[in-house]
Amino acid sequence: MRSEELGETLLPKRLALPIFASDPLSSVAYATGEILLVLTVGGTAFLYLTPWVAAGVVALMAVVVMSYRQVVHAYPSGGGSYEVVSTNLGPSAGLVVAASLLVDYVMTVAVSVASGVDNIISAFGGLAGYRVALAVGFVALLAAMNLRGVRESGKAFAAPTYLFIGGILLMVVTGLIRVVFGDDPQAPTAAFGISPGEGGDNLAGLGLLMLGLRAFASGCTALTGVEAISNGVPAFRAPKSKNAASTMSAMGIVAVLMFIGVTVLAMTSHVHYVDDACQLTGIAGDCANYTQQTVIAQLASTFLGGDNSILFYFIQTVTALVLILAANTAFNGFPLLASILAQHRYLPRQMHTRGDRLAFSNGIIALAVVAGGLLWFYKADVTSLIHLYILGVFTSFTLSQVGMVRHWNRTLADESDPAVRAGAQRSRVINGLGAVTTALVLVIVLITKFTQGAWLAVLAAVLLWLMMRGIRRHYDAVSAELAVEDPRAESVKPSKVHGVVLVSKLHKATLRALGYAEAFRPDTLEALTVAVEQDATDELRGQWDAYGIEVPLKVLDSPYREITKPVVQYVRDYRRASPREAVAVFIPEYVVGHWWEHLLHNQSALWLKSRLLFTPGVMVISVPWQLASAPRADRPARRAPGAARRGEPAQTRTEREPERV
Hints:
Blueprint: H1 13-26, H2 28-39, H3 50-74, H4 80-89, H5 91-123, H6 131-147, H7 150-180, E1 193-194, H8 206-219, H9 228-231, H10 240-268, E2 280-281, H11 295-303, H12 310-343, H13 361-377, H14 382-386, H15 391-414, H16 418-449, H17 454-482, H18 487-490, E3 497-502, H19 508-519, E4 524-531, H20 534-546, E5 553-557, H21 564-577, E6 582-591, H22 603-612, E7 618-626, H23 643-646, H24 653-660
Helix pairs in contact: 1-7, 1-10, 1-12, 2-8, 2-10, 3-8, 3-10, 3-15, 3-16, 4-5, 4-15, 5-6, 5-12, 5-13, 5-15, 5-17, 6-12, 6-13, 7-10, 7-12, 8-16, 11-12, 12-13, 15-16, 21-22
């Protein structure tokens, strides 16, 4: 796609919702389960805390959604939390947010895909042995789809997301109707008892409080991905801010309704969901071989006709799909944030480059590689990965809300219009409430999850922060070094140019290099060879004289059979003796057509170039000789990708070369 076609990839709200909100919507599938996993540490004694923990999560979701609606309107350029914090709290604080979000985007992919694979295994237990392969394969598939471009991936992801919403709401409504009319369906695990974990049967006072806080922190996974819409405002159709804010409101309402419904059904049907299946008492057979169904799978089995019904398989299919596709939130947020950071010189500039489908290809590939590595290392286990999760989210939540409070303070200081001031005061209250709430949650998450693995996420964010600072220092140093202070002084020409053609044997490639060197018309020109074997050197001298080549041939002795060191030393000595002269070194190179041929040719040339490039005042010029296996400009070339669809005729390589350059 051409650069000017970027506007065609902008998203209407119906596609923006599944692209940017699939993560918080899909987290409904595991947020309730994460609360239950923590509370069942004490057996069934503390499950009565479930509605209170869920109510806290719902209230927090409402506060965060309202807060980020203010961000969308105030900062529509797409930087989200990073831009808000950088503008209002300074670059260092902005980098803290950026590092936290980048880590969290990686974790979003890993957790969403692992949870999706869990739901597949809940329906098809025979796939349990292929857990890691399935997870890594889905990450690769997501990366490939996103490399095709935002709009194409949005169309592919829209149907599963809407089917998931419809399926969960159908299950919730059906279940609530059955409960209201006196039916009392019980989950498959309701008959099992739960043995308390270590120390779980003696919890009271502070211990009980910590258990409740841990459950709340785990339930806060329902909020992951909420900020993605604020990061992706530029991808919306105009009016961008209004459409993004409307999409965020719709996402919050739907996510809250589904989360409440799933939690209520799990409580009324007495779902028992534990970290270790051997905590369940009453299992027939070996508990180690018992495959525990997810909460969603148990509810679908309970309220939609059993685990062999069509609706059960429908719920499991769309849940698995939307969880896997929820990683698309990160595949849109991570590359966009990385692009902004690269533009600000905190990441390599390649991250800012769009691919041929107008997607940030390098960011997509980097995210897929890191997330795939995490899934492989942790064996795609959701319980292990979840402890690394959400810390970065609430770091960015808290700092961005503090930044928004400062933003509104400045607005109130500069604004005299009563209507504008009233709006700013209202927004400041909302963001202030968001800052206090999310800061409290951040402390809770840090305390309850740090020793369980969250320290790894903290360490990764710190290392990423240091790396980005180092990259910025490097780019700043390079810019300062290359800055032009005095154009006349900086553009002084060398007094002379001394040409050197490196020669190993006298063949066509050597003669071409000599011809090119003469065409450059250096002030002086010589050929240079290294005497590794005396017989070969004598033969070269004889051929040189026999062909009557006028360029003088200089032979360097090499008693230890080295090639690179004598050449580099000769060039450096020449530069030391004539510092005002420039040296142009011409190196004949073979152009080959097969990857394995690279291993057989040009190794000495590559090593020489790598050494000579570090010598000031030396220009290294490669003179190519195309071997028979190399692609040739005079041969017919295949059409470019998509040419048949566009109706373009076949082009030769020569015709396409100027366009490609």
